[in-house]
Design brief:
Layout (H helix, E strand, L loop, with lengths): L25 H4 L8 H18 L5 H10 L2 H16 L17 H5 L2 H13 L5 H14 L5 H7 L5 H13 L6 H6 L6 H14 L5 H7 L5 H13 L6 H6 L3 H5 L6 H18 L5 H10 L3 H16 L1
Length: 315
């Protein structure tokens, strides 16, 4: 589960339904959801590592844009991925021991309006036949933090490709774009559960109370991880109407009945539910957290309960 909308090395907690890749703490929660399948990622990184070995120089963002404009197919989306990685992690080559590079500040790059407008242009040109390039460029625009990109991202919410919609929602959350609330609320009724899940996440990340009633309706979504992401999003808005769902996530029988989730995923969801409950400071929940602190089998879950109770004491 879109605290602070950090880059998608995190994703809404869930069982991997819909278009979940692996996808939105909310920080650790928008990589399981937004990252491409691991095999594709490995191949893409290998391409760029080979380039790094040959040039021994970091690519300039304009170089990547030229690649995207001049080529098609695999080479084009790989360049978009490279641009995304450059902004997310300015030492993406050095991290693999290939070279030492001077760190680049995404915020500084985001102040380059010419660069941002060029990215927006390529993003729009790729609309008809290159969804993967659009997905990576949506991430780039979110990381750059410049609202010049907002209009293009808002338009992409109606894209025919679900993954592009998902990436664009995350980017709008990262930009804290208030105009995104209404169109994202509409996507809570989308046929794709992955889109609905990212919609709940992003509405929580935007932090606008006007989204609360729509999120309450999403508590009744037939897909479990959409409904519990709605509950977590409500907690981020300070709305307690998601508490019954959050309490269900603390019941081992409930999560145990969801066979498609790994034990690690179940543990992560429980931790997020504890943190969400703690943020609401609901007095009636405190005895439940104390029982978890004293008896849960998972050290990670017990630690989350300890921290939650400490937050109660501090309030």
């Amino acid at each position: 589960m879109p605290e602070e909308n950090s880059s998608p090395d995190t994703a809404p907690p869930g069982e991997g339904s819909g278009t979940d890749d692996q996808r939105l703490t909310p920080g650790r929660i928008v990589s399981r959801f937004l990252l491409v399948p691991i095999l594709v990622t490995i191949v893409c990184v290998a391409v760029f590592l080979m380039f790094g070995l040959l040039s021994n120089e970091p690519a300039d963002p304009y170089d990547y844009l030229r690649e995207i404009k001049q080529h098609s197919g695999g080479r084009r989306w790989q360049a978009a991925l490279g641009l995304s990685r450059m902004i997310e992690n300015p030492r993406w080559q050095a991290a693999f021991g290939l070279s030492q590079q001077v760190a680049r500040d995404p915020l500084a790059l985001g102040q380059d309006e010419t660069l941002v407008r060029e990215i927006v242009t390529v993003f729009e040109e790729a609309k008809e036949n290159d969804p993967r390039t659009r997905q990576y460029l949506a991430l780039v625009m979110g990381r750059l933090g410049n609202r010049i990109a907002s209009e293009a991202l808002l338009s992409a919410l109606s894209d025919k490709d679900s993954e592009t919609q998902i990436h664009s929602m995350w980017a709008l959350g990262a930009l804290e774009e208030p105009q995104a609330i209404q169109p994202i609320t509409v996507l809570l009724g989308h046929h794709d559960a992955g889109v609905r899940k990212m919609a709940t996440y992003t509405l929580g990340a935007l932090g606008q109370i006007e989204a609360a009633d729509a999120l309450v309706r999403a508590l009744g979504d037939p897909v479990p991880d959409v409904s519990w992401n709605a509950a977590i999003a409500l907690s981020r808005l300070g709305d307690s109407r998601g508490i019954p769902m959050l309490l269900r996530l603390l019941e081992s029988e409930f999560l145990g009945s969801i066979e498609v989730m790994s034990e690690q995923q179940k543990e992560d969801v429980t931790v997020e539910a504890i943190r969400a409950l703690a943020s609401l400071r609901e007095v009636s929940v405190r005895p439940i957290l104390e029982a978890i602190r004293n008896s849960d089998r998972s050290l990670k879950i017990r630690q989350a309960a300890i921290e939650a109770l400490a937050a109660y004491e501090a309030s």
